[in-house]
Amino acid sequence: MIDMHCDVLMKLWEEPHKSFSDDDLHISYNKWLNSPVQVQYFAIFVPPETSQDYFQSALEMIDLFHEKIIKPYPGIKWVQTKEEVEALSPHEKGAVLTLEGCHVIGEDLMKLRTLLRLGVRAVGLTWNNVNALSGTCVEDEELGLTTLGKAAVKTINEYNAFVDCSHLSPAGIDDVLELADRPMISHSNAKAIYQHERNISDQQLKQFFEQKAPVGITFVPYFTAKDGVNIEDLLNHINHMYELGGRDSISFGSDFDGMSETIQGLEDIEAVRNLYHKLAHHYSSDDVYRMRYDNAVRFL
C-alpha cells in the first residue's frame, strides 16, 4: 500500500529528542516494518504559528528526513520516481518527500525551485492559512490562485511534480485543474458523505477522476463522520467515490501523526491491515490493487 500523507517530520522537528524508533508515533520504524504500507509520503509542514523562519524550518525538516529516517535504516530507501518505487524489494520501504503549505516560500519562487531540486515530489499550495498563492478551504474560499500561485503551478509542472489540492480553496482547485499537469488530493474525503470544509465536493472530485488523478482518502475521524468513527464510516467515503467514477483515482493519505484522534481500528500504520482486509471483502483484487498502490504511483 502507498500512504500519500503523514506528519512525522513535524513531530521530529517539534521534539528534537525524538527518534523515528519512538513507538509513541503513529508511524515509527518498527510499526512501519510491521505494516502493509510499502511507500510512505513524508510531508514538510511548518506550523504557521511558529516564530522560526519558515523556509529555514522546511530545510531542517528535509535534513531530519535524511538524518533520522533514511540514513539510520538501510531498508528504507528515498524514492522519487515510479521506477524507483517498482525497484523496491519486498522487504524494503520507500520514503517520498512532499510539501504541505507554500507559506514557507513567501513570495519567492526560487525557494520553491530549491525544494523541488531537493526532491519534493508533491506540493500543497496552501495549508489552512491564506498565503501569497491562494485562498484556502478555511479562509477566503472564493479566492483562487493569484498570479504568483499560477506561476508556482507552472514551476511545479517543470519538475514533473504533483500539485496537491488538499487544504486549497474550491476556487483554487478549479484553477489547478486547468493548469496542473499532475493534480492530486493527498488527504481529503467526500463532502457529500460528511460536510466538512476539508472535504471535496462531488463536482470537483469528478474532475480529478476524469484525469485519473490520485485522491487520497484520509483517516482523520473528524473529516469522516460525527461520532464513534470506525472503518465502516471510512468505507462510506470510498464507496461513494467509487460509484462517482473514482476507480482509477482512489488512494490513501492517512495524516498519521497530524491528528489528535484516530479512527477505531486505524490507530496507527500497523492497523492499516484492518482497512486492507475490509477492502478485500468489498472490492475485487484488481480494484484493491488500484486503490492501495497503482493509482498513487501511476504518475509519480
TrEMBL record:
Broad class of enzyme this protein falls into: hydrolase
Protein keywords: Dipeptidase, Hydrolase, Protease
Enzyme Commission number, as recorded: 3.4.13.19
Pfam families (UniProt xref): Peptidase_M19
Molecular functions (GO terms): dipeptidase activity
Keyword Hydrolase tagged: yes
Gene3D superfamilies to which the protein is assigned, alphabetical: Metal-dependent hydrolases
InterPro entries linked: Metal_Hydrolase, Pept_M19
Hydrolase listed as a keyword: yes
Protein name in the entry: Membrane dipeptidase
